[in-house]
Amino acid sequence: xxxxxxxxxxxxxxxxxxxxxxxxxxxxxxxxxxxxxxxxxxxxxxxxxxxxxxxxxxxxxxxxxxxxxxxxxxxxxxxxxxxxx
Length: 85
Description:
By secondary structure, the chain is mostly helical. The protein has one domain (20-83). The chain has helices spanning 4-13, 21-34, 38-49, 65-71; strands at residues 54-57, 77-80.
């Protein structure tokens, strides 16, 4: 468990939005369609919800071509941190 001091620091740098039923449903759909972990699906849906262009990740499961390419049809761009010089 994170100490209160760390949680306060996180609160200053991370934007927390409430999880709506729409977000949960979108994440669930991605989970089933792409065989993603639920946490990864929420991460991707949060990107869309926050209006961000891409998700930076080093998650080997998500950057596989079998997942990365099809996600683009949902306008979800994944950037593999290992590919950044």
